[in-house]
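Re: weekly structure request thread

Next one in the queue (138 aa):
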Amino acid sequence: MKKIILIFTAFLMLFSVKTQAQKHDTEKNNYVVLTKKIPQLQPILITAEELKKEDGHHFGDFQVIVCGQTVKGLINLEEMKKFTHRAEKAGVELKACGFSLKKFGVDPEKIPSEMEIVENGILYDFQLQKKGYFSIEL
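Done, posted below.
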C-alpha cells in the first residue's frame, strides 16, 4: 500500500513539473507604456524592438497609450508617420486616450488612422496591468 501511494505521489509530482514547464513555454511577456510626451515614442519603440529580440517567442503584446495635453500633437501627421511606421514594423500598437482628446479639443478624425482610441487611457492601462502586463508611465 505504501508503494502505491509513493508511486502515485511521484507520478503527480512529475506531471505537475511537466505542466509548469509547458505553461512557461507558452507564456508571453506583454507590455504597456503610458506616455504624456510624443518625443518619448522614439525611445519607447527602440525599447520594444530590443525586448522583441530579447524575449524571442515569449514576446507578446506591446501597447503605448498617449495621454494628456500632448494628444494635440497627434494631428501632426507628418511627424507621427515616422512613429506609426516604426510601431507597425515592431508590432507595437499605438493608442490615444479619448478622455484627453475630448479635454483638449482634438478631433479624433484627425489623428493617424493607425492609432486606436481608447475611452480612458489611465483606466485602460490599469485593465492591462490586471491582466498581467508589465507597465510603466513616462
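Confidence is low (pLDDT under 50) at residues 6-25. The first strand starts at residue 29 and ends at 35.
Next request, please.
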